[in-house]
């Protein structure tokens, strides 16, 4: 792995998206290919990015925005801005300190970090570095006792919400990462899981499918979600929703909120962009139900468009890894600062003094 720069922000970083190019200089080629890629041919990765270019923002004039702000409320928590850090696994791929530095940046910039089950640092250490606003992303484990243990540790560490991912039971490797010869480095270990986690296998009968009777045997069902919500006192968000019917059913089940997400293109290759399905999901669940969005955020104007189409806030995934690789905690903090300022610039020029002013009337389909 290349040695990341941690002492200063490179002079050629002028906007948040610049971290994507800079990361190619700071990350090992194969690691960058893995982080940048999704699954299969990366069709959904490309769709996530392209979806934002399909919309233009209307500039408005003679609007008084001098009292403007970006504050919002999600559930019982208030945040100064709508830019959260998505759960990203194995962050030591980007930086030797990994999730600890990301947590420090989140704390410095008043952002909520969502710590991944597959963190390469202990969740307790991440929680201590993250400060007040921190959520924990959960993958159901094969054994409920292991899932229960993760929940108990997250609660004891002070995480204030659980974000359970439901769309990643099967993941197909990215052709881009395979071509680059990517292999997980020895120091990138899911340290929060039991030592025998990697060795867990499913015995198949001769006529069984590796997919239906294999990978999907441990996939969560409604009974698992019901059990989880009864097992914890923390609010439970569900991540990985693209269909309005699923969103409506989850709202009826009593989840705290939904993350509209295709797992950053790492699940079903060819799934629609998160932004594309967002308006239909908002229409299904109504105006007051909390919705977050991830997938393809590269600028403050992207954040604006997501909010205009129905999101209450966004999660930033790959940009956080790129910034972490370039300048550690300082880079992630700087990236959040740039995104927030870019959002404020877009809001000001669109005549929106607050997030409540941002709606679909601020957008026009791009030609």
Q: Report mean pLDDT, rounded to a whole number.
A: 94
Radius of gyration: 20 Å
Describe the sheet with the most strands. 8 strands, parallel
Strand portion: 5-15%
What pattern of helices and strands is seen along the backbone?
A: HHHEEEEHEHEHEHHHEHEHEHEHE
CATH superfamily: Aldolase class I
The secondary-structure class comes to: alpha/beta
Q: Number of DSSP strands?
A: 12
Gross morphology: globular
The CATH topology corresponds to TIM Barrel
- Look at the structure and give the CATH class: Alpha Beta
By DSSP (H or I, 4+ residues per run), the number of helices equals 13
Helix content: 25-40%
Low-confidence stretches: none
Oligomer: single chain
Cα(first) to Cα(last) distance is: 43 Å
Q: Identify the strand order in the major beta sheet.
A: 4-11-10-9-8-7-6-5
The total tally of domains equals 1
Give me the CATH architecture, please.
Answer: Alpha-Beta Barrel
């Amino acid at each position: 792995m290349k040695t990341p720069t941690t002492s200063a922000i490179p002079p050629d970083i002028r906007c948040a998206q610049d971290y994507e190019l800079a990361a190619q200089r700071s990350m090992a080629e194969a690691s960058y290919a893995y982080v940048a890629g999704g699954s299969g041919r990366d069709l959904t990765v490309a769709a996530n990015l392209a979806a934002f270019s399909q919309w233009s923002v209307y500039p408005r004039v003679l609007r008084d925005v001098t009292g403007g702000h970006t504050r919002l409320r999600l559930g019982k928590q208030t945040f100064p801005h709508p830019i959260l850090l998505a759960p990203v696994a194995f962050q030591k791929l980007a930086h030797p300190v990994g999730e600890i530095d990301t947590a420090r940046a989140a704390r410095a910039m008043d952002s909520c970090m969502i710590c991944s089950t597959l963190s390469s640092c202990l969740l307790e250490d991440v929680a201590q570095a993250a400060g007040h606003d921190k959520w924990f992303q959960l993958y159901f484990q094969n054994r409920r006792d292991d899932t229960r243990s993760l929940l108990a540790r997250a609660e004891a560490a002070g995480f204030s919400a659980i974000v359970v991912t439901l769309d990643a039971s099967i993941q197909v490797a990215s052709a881009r990462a395979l071509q680059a010869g990517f292999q997980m480095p020895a120091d990138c270990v899911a340290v929060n899981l039991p030592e025998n986690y990697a060795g867990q296998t499913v015995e198949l009968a001769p006529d069984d499918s590796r997919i239906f009777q294999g990978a999907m045997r441990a996939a969560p069902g409604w009974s698992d979600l019901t059990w989880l919500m009864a097992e914890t006192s923390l609010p439970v968000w569900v991540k990985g929703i693209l269909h309005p019917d699923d969103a409506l059913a989850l709202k009826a089940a009593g989840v705290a909120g939904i993350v509209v997400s295709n797992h950053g293109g790492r699940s079903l290759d060819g799934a629609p962009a998160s932004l594309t399905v967002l308006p239909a999901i908002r229409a299904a669940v109504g105006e007051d139900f909390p919705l977050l969005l991830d997938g393809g955020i590269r600028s403050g104007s992207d954040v604006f468009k997501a909010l205009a189409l129905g999101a209450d806030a966004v999660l930033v995934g790959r940009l956080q890894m790129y910034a972490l690789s370039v300048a550690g905690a300082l880079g992630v903090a700087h990236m959040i600062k740039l995104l927030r300022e870019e959002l404020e610039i877009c809001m000001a020029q669109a005549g929106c003094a607050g997030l409540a002013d941002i709606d679909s009337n601020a957008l026009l389909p791009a030609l």
